[in-house]
Amino acid sequence: MIRGNRIFLSCAYWAFVLYVFVPLILMVMMGFKDSKFIGFPIRSWTLDWYSGVFADAEVLSTFGYSIAIAVLSTIASVVVGTWIAVLLERSRFKGWGVMFGLTVLPALVPGIISAIAFRIYARYLGIEPGMGAIIWAHAVHNVPFVVLVVMARLSTLPKSQIEAARDLGADPLVAFLRITLPYLVPAILGASIFCLLLSFDDFVRSFFLGGYDPTLPVLIFAKLKSGMSPEINAIATVALVLTAAIGIWAERFTRRANKDTN
């Protein structure tokens, strides 16, 4: 019985791996096709589509624009999310559940509804479509993920360490900066990378709140209007490699940080 369960779980795992990675492999392969059309078989291979990505000033500027938005929105969401997480985890007050529910609500609202709401609210506040509006929308959407990750880490912090610091004369701010914040570094880094990737990949909010300069997902969508081509596959592959590299680096750094703090 146990052997049968192991075989079933193993088959289910590898079926999931194939389901996830086969489309990605096919996407990467199509970026090497020496033709303007997507489809098999691939009779000849070329690097022209990938070299074209790095030679295209529009694509490169869009990459930089998307990265800048992702970094700035991540910084804002991490600062706000960490502050809210510390407030919620360290204090229990009347209305705590309501505040927690309102905090995680932006992550539960469907993207299209969230984007429409942000567009209406931005117009009401006089915020023009563009980089600032996108950063604002991405940061609000990402705050709940920071709160959940940081609260999970904060719940494992021994209270005796904070109490010892207070007994030695440290005020709440010093205790936070010297005890709590270093302990939260792995969680903050993990939440930052997650928010960075979410923002970089966000299409709906970027589409509704963007100005004349498109983010990378919006640019890819615009190119799709003229049909699929290996150029789109090459752009998507470069983005995939970039995000994968960031994710792998973050995972290794987080693992080392966890060992240092434990």
What this model shows, in words?
The protein has 262 residues and is mostly helical. The chain has a single domain (47-261), classed as MetI-like fold. The chain has 11 helices and no strands. Helix 1 (2-30) packs across helix 11 and helix 6 (131-154) crosses helix 8. The longest helix is centred in the first third of the chain and has 34 residues, at 57-90. The radius of gyration is 23 Å and the shape is globular. This is Spermidine/putrescine transport system permease protein. Residues 63-250 form the ABC transmembrane type-1 domain. The chain crosses the membrane at residues 12-32, 63-88, 100-121, 133-154, 175-200, 232-250. InterPro entries: Bact_Polyamine_Transport, MetI-like, MetI-like_sf. It is found in: Cell membrane.
Provide a brief overview of the structure.
With 262 residues, the protein is an all-alpha fold.
